What does this fold into?
Amino acid sequence: MNVETISKLATVLAHIDAARTSAGVIEGLSPFLHLFGLRHLLIARLPRTDERLWPRSVLYDGWPEEWSAHYTTSDHFSHDPCVMQCRISGKPFLWSELSRSRMSAKELRVMEEATEFAMLDGVCIPVYEPCKAPAVITVAGDRIALGRNDLPVLEMVSIHAFRAVQQLRGAADEPAQKKLTNRERDILAWTAAGKSAEDVGCILSISKLTVERHLSNIREKLDATNSTHAAIKAILRGDIHL
It folds into this structure.
């Protein structure tokens, strides 16, 4: 990688880092993607549970508007071979690298119909993070010019943009976490260790009723259905440790 290339990459990353909105991140990323003929960008998580609600997991939709609507109404998400590949591999890949001979009729339909919307080929960059559904950065165009040596660089810049978008969206969209008090953390930690409300009361020298009232408050703060659910959420947040 020569000095000129490094300088260009530094400029792109600097624009992404300076962005204060998700749109600003995309504005910094787009000129870099255009160098490879990549005109259409989608950033989304890949939920497994209720796939019909997958549009809620989209972080940025830069697909052609008509294709985005058609993709959703046709339930293409459930049969998209790119989605399936992202779930079994963390490596970036070109759409054209997927074996058409192994695709079902519905999978082939997804790929063939994409070409009708100026998306003849593209790249998928899977993103895996702890305790979260996998995500994908998909970029496509009607005439892309991307060599194998370009793929690692594209991956690096795209994931950098993904993290910036995620951070900005999180700051703007997610409600502030309700903090647990020290007493609530103690009670939940003992509960997670298998102690009953009565046991916890004895350990902490408070009544069983007080323990149960604290547990009710904890479940409300963490939006948990029961104490086990609350304990798991608290562990993931780093509030308690086992």
Observations:
- Residues 3-173 form a domain with the Beta-Lactamase fold (CATH 3.30.450.80).
